[in-house]
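User: Here's a protein and a ligand (NAP). What would the complex look like?
Assistant: Let me lay out the input and then the predicted complex.
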Amino acid sequence: MDASATAASTDFDAIIIGAGMSGMYQLHRLRELGLRVRVLEAGTGVGGTWYWNRYPGARFDSESYSYQFSFSKELLAEWDWTEHFAPQPETLRYLNFVADKLDLRRDIQFQSRVASAHWQEAGRCWRVTLEDGRSYVTRFLITAVGPLSAPTMPNIPGVEDFKGESCHTARWPHEPVSFEGKRVAVIGTGATGIQTIQEVAKTAGSLTVFQRTPNWCAPLHNAKITREEMATLRAGYDEMFQRCQETFSCFLHTADPRNTFDVSEAERQAFWEKLYSEPGFGIWVGNFKDMLTNREANAEVSKFIANKIRSRVKDPKVAEKLIPTNHGFGTRRVPLETKYYEVYNQDNVTLVDIRETPIERITETGIQTTAAQYDFDMIIYATGFDAITGSFDRIDIRGVNGMALKDRWEMGPETYLGVLVDGFPNMMMLIGPHMALGNIPRSIEYNVDWVTGLMRTARDRGLTRLEATKDGVTAWTDHVKSLAEGLLTFEVDSWMTGVNRNVAGKQVRTVARYAGSAPDYRAKCDDVAAKGYEGLVLA
Ligand code: NAP
């Protein structure tokens, strides 16, 4: 990148941590710049989220075609999706197909979990060290570690004591797992738990679900894609991706321009019935525009969904347990389901509400609550992630003067555009905190292209050090916080507000997520680039 002696003393121009979708695409783009790049990946294969989350029933909740890479006509032309919401094995096959087509693996080092990354001011470079002690020097460090990739086990005493089979959903084995005739427990009822439960219930001898907080779920309405349909979809790709660029969160769905009470009760009910009967996230992100800002509006839609749950679950007592009471519809990420509620009508399925009878401990043979001891052959932990900042916290990242990123973010993340942090020169984050999440592959492509533009500038101008200014970080962080004001989503504990009761220091809500629109986010980043990277000190 730079013809100086210091460039010669680096192993790479850029190291990317993680070979998920963002790391894969970033590698491809930096290679186009002719840089020496290495991806360090903890797993044995590409795919990130779709490599690790192999739990039963894992699948897209967004339309498969809208969730693929859009940057290559060749990839788009050659890959056929078989379901509107692809199951995890298909998505992982797709990402391996991409890795093959772009010949990515030759620059990806697998089984290489990064333990630390320390900034070296003298050489203007990062020293990156793996858990096994191998270490590399790179000019630039790009994190592609994912917002949901640091799984957390529940802080219940005795987790280590259980003698049967047990697994966190994000660490699921690569070999097939049978539930046939087994007594299975699932702890956790987020999007992952719900997909797991509806699948395991099909074959388990018995399934016991331990639910702490019910979530508002809505039907996925998945279907196979026929050959003819695939051809029609492909013919419309340009238009579809254009639409994704224009919507608030890059989804195919976008908020209805009306407010909830602009229309009559009958019209509201008909609109919600329509959304409830359609595939995907329409009911969440295509609903009335005030659903997540107006308390009364939110209460109305919550009532509608509660009645749907009541109509689908035969035992009224069980139905009430499945209806959330501490948050409104859509204020947490809405899990999409396929006959999830009907599972509780099956004889082999039991719901244990652990708000009523808390789990006391995991024992050698099962789970002990305040009311009973349950024996199991298998316990599945669908207990989620130390989200957004958790995957950063697990790496000892130290910037100028040895400052730890974890300490820097103790009170919540502070960033410039969600990409840079002052005091951490030459480090760029893909899908880091303060980024527009939404349809993540769309955000990834924008994020990577922006970072690539910055890297091109660095290459062309022979830059060896770039750092966000303190003022830039303060202004962006304040802006992100102001966007969260008045949103009901930020009044609720969830991974989206940085809360994980299993992790010390993550009990208090923070603004870790950018809540503005994706077009606004892109406009801001484009403007910063057009102004010669305003808010950065380039050297
Ligand atoms: P999650 O939404 O954080 O859910 C974790 C669940 O575990 C919650 O029900 C939580 O209860 C429970 N839990 C955690 N610790 C517990 C404890 N000590 N005792 C009892 N229960 C405990 O995590 P997730 O379901 O893995 O989903 C995370 C995100 O991943 C989703 O929101 C979504 O964005 C993404 N995801 C996407 C897909 C997809 O696209 N298809 C599928 C799965 C996940 P509380 O609510 O009471 O804390």
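Summary: The longest strand covers residues 135-143.
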